[in-house]
DNA sequence: GTAAATGCAAAGCGTTTGCACGCGG
DNA sequence: CCGCGTGCAAACGCTTTGCATTTAC
């Protein structure tokens, strides 16, 4: 119902359509499970573990299997619709890909809600040791989000 | 032999002694395997996976078991003698802890040799979104080290 | 109708645990 | 000589694979 627009974040509906479109483009069949998968990630404002996704899937498709979840998560990552990410504890999580621009993440260590920000340390005239050919980097900030700081947020 | 001096990196010998000292301090027994573990990490100039450590251990202790390696790696991490770290692929690795100062890492994606550097993006007046209470951060740069760039480095 | 996607079960991998023996203190 | 540390084996959690059935196209 709520038609949110000119934000840099597109509407849930549009995100779902985008992901479904990507899947068709790659010659994939649009199954109910994959539609649901797209919806789950469109709604989520943070990272989801395979288990999280599975749990949300089972609400509508009680007999979905774990391997279907994994299969589709991997396929969606490979084609860039999802970002996959190993958290500090080594756990694998996924989130809808922001393909628009380079950014980094501010992640709530409690609820794992994730905000993006544009500052990138690599844009500084960074003096690095050795003579490495730089390929890649990783920068994340971990903290407690406002809601999780607030005690009135009943557990 | 080499009397380590004002370098921030101490000699292998001293590192081994430090780690052994830490273990005694915590009431641990100094077994041959644990001595060897200390030597392995003193010699390594990058991160080692449990498998790497196991492989090096078996050279001298052919019937060492994987669980002993894991147990000691975990214990050494818990007491701060080792840093543990999940790589971008989610694989767990360990390296001798630099307890001296805050730093970040430049990691060779080929050989995983690791250099440390002092620049820290959090020291900038970093404008972050939301009102998170910052707890932690992670910053790593990945590249190819000079040796791995050089074709004359025979495989 | 045909090939792809699913669900089930079983295997795979990395890591942990329980227990009897061996060794450090 | 007491008890921690070890090695073996088995369990564990997470992820992947093989195969028959179901489903999208």
Automatic annotation (TrEMBL), chains A, B:
SUPFAM superfamilies (UniProt xref): Winged helix' DNA-binding domain
Compartments, as annotated in UniProt: Cytoplasm
Secretion signal, residue range per the UniProt entry: none
Entries under CDD domains matching the protein: Fur_like (cd07153)
Entry annotated with the keyword S-adenosyl-L-methionine: no
UniProt cross-references to Gene3D superfamilies, sorted A to Z: 3.30.1490.190, Winged helix-like DNA-binding domain superfamily/Winged helix DNA-binding domain
Keywords, ordered alphabetically: Cytoplasm, DNA-binding, Repressor, Transcription, Transcription regulation, Zinc
Keyword Cell membrane: no
Main localisation: cytoplasm
Top-level lineage group: Bacteria
Assigned protein family: Belongs to the Fur family.
Name of the molecule in the record: Fur family transcriptional regulator
Taxonomic lineage: Bacteria, Bacillati, Bacillota, Bacilli, Bacillales
């Amino acid at each position: 119902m709520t038609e949110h627009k000119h934000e840099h974040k597109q509407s849930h509906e549009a995100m779902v359509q985008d992901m479904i479109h990507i899947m068709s483009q790659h010659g994939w069949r649009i199954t109910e499970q994959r539609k649901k998968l797209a919806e789950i990630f469109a709604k989520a404002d943070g990272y989801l573990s395979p288990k999280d996704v599975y749990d949300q899937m089972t609400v509508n498709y009680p007999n979905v299997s774990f391997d279907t979840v994994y299969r589709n998560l991997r396929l969606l990552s490979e084609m860039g619709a999802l970002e996959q990410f190993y958290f500090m504890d080594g756990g694998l999580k996924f989130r809808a890909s922001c393909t628009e621009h380079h950014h980094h993440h501010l992640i709530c260590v409690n609820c794992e809600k994730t905000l993006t920000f544009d500052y990138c340390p690599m844009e500084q005239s960074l003096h690095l040791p050795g003579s490495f050919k730089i390929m890649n980097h990783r920068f994340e900030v971990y903290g407690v989000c406002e809601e999780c700081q607030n005690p009135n947020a009943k557990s």
